[in-house]
Design brief:
It is built from nine helices and ten strands. It has helices at 22-33, 55-63, 101-114, 119-128, 130-136, 140-151, 168-173, 198-206, 218-221, and strands at 14-18, 37-39, 47-50, 67-70, 83-87, 90-94, 182-188, 209-212, 229-232, 244-250. The strands form three sheets. It has a four-stranded parallel β-sheet with strand order 2-1-3-4, with helices on both faces. A four-stranded parallel β-sheet has the order 7-10-8-9, with helices on one face. The chain is globular and about 65 Å long.
Length: 252
């Protein structure tokens, strides 16, 4: 990755905004939406947006240790403002490292069309049910598997369903067996992660551990959960362990 994506809480915090015109107005509206306190160049702040991309202004701010976004000048930016899909409290940020704002916008529009308007309501319902979820599945691994199963395509709380938020109580009351241990095999036709089937991509996102042959490329392993255990092996394991384990191998 060329950048570390982060979400900043700016409510009530100072952000410098310089420049005039449409670009400045758009940045002002964005900062106002998150409750930032907009100040001028002479004020103290940790972040600044130079809406006209002026190189001299950027340099003055950066020498003060302020992180700067310079509109249409990705080479001068310390941080990039992404295209945003807003389903509060769910936020999806799309960035191209400044390579193409048009591409980021096009991707945002596609994702907007996919996500139901009530996705934020599902997030809120799950937040409000945290105590009940922990009581229903006290074991952390079992709890994660239950959440994964509920949120899977076709699950009771599938996030792409506009009825998911209302289904949280039914999901909590269900009899899903999340303790079943199993080993799934994924045979890779290539080392390109774009060639993964939807099933393989879903399993990689859910697995507790990933056993893999030595020739499985890192690009494939990177699609697994960040906290999944990765174990290089020559053959599939006899005792893979609790929860969902995967065996990845290349097809000759």
């Amino acid at each position: 990755m060329h950048s570390l994506p982060v979400f900043l809480r700016l409510h009530g915090r100072a952000v410098i905004l310089t420049g005039e015109g449409e670009a400045a107005d758009a940045k002002r509206r964005l900062l106002e939406r998150v409750g930032a306190r907009i100040v001028g160049e002479a004020d103290e702040a940790a972040l600044a947006i130079v809406s006209d991309g002026d190189e001299v202004t950027v340099a003055r701010l950066q020498v003060r240790g302020i992180l700067v976004n310079a509109t249409d000048r990705p080479d001068l930016c310390d941080f990039i403002l992404p295209a945003i899909v807003d389903r509060d409290p769910v936020l999806i940020a799309i960035g191209t490292g400044g390579a193409s704002a048009g591409l980021a916008k096009a991707l945002r529009q596609r994702i907007e069309a996919l996500l139901p308007a009530r996705l934020g309501a599902l997030a809120t319902a799950l937040h409000n049910a945290r105590t009940a979820i922990r009581a229903r599945w006290p074991d952390a691994a079992a709890r994660r598997r239950a959440i994964d199963a509920g949120l899977a395509a076709g699950g009771l709380i599938d996030p792409l369903s506009d009825k998911a938020a209302d289904a949280v109580p039914d999901w909590l009351a269900g009899t899903l067996d999340v303790h079943a241990d199993r080993l799934e095999t994924i045979r890779l036709l290539s080392g390109d992660p774009d060639d993964l089937t939807l099933r393989a991509a879903r399993l990689l996102g859910e697995a507790d551990r990933v056993y893999h042959a030595p020739d499985v490329p890192a690009a494939i392993l990177d699609r697994a959960r960040a906290d999944a255990v990765r174990i290089e092996a020559i053959t599939p394991p006899d005792r893979p362990g609790e929860g969902l384990s995967l065996w990845l191998e290349r097809v000759p």
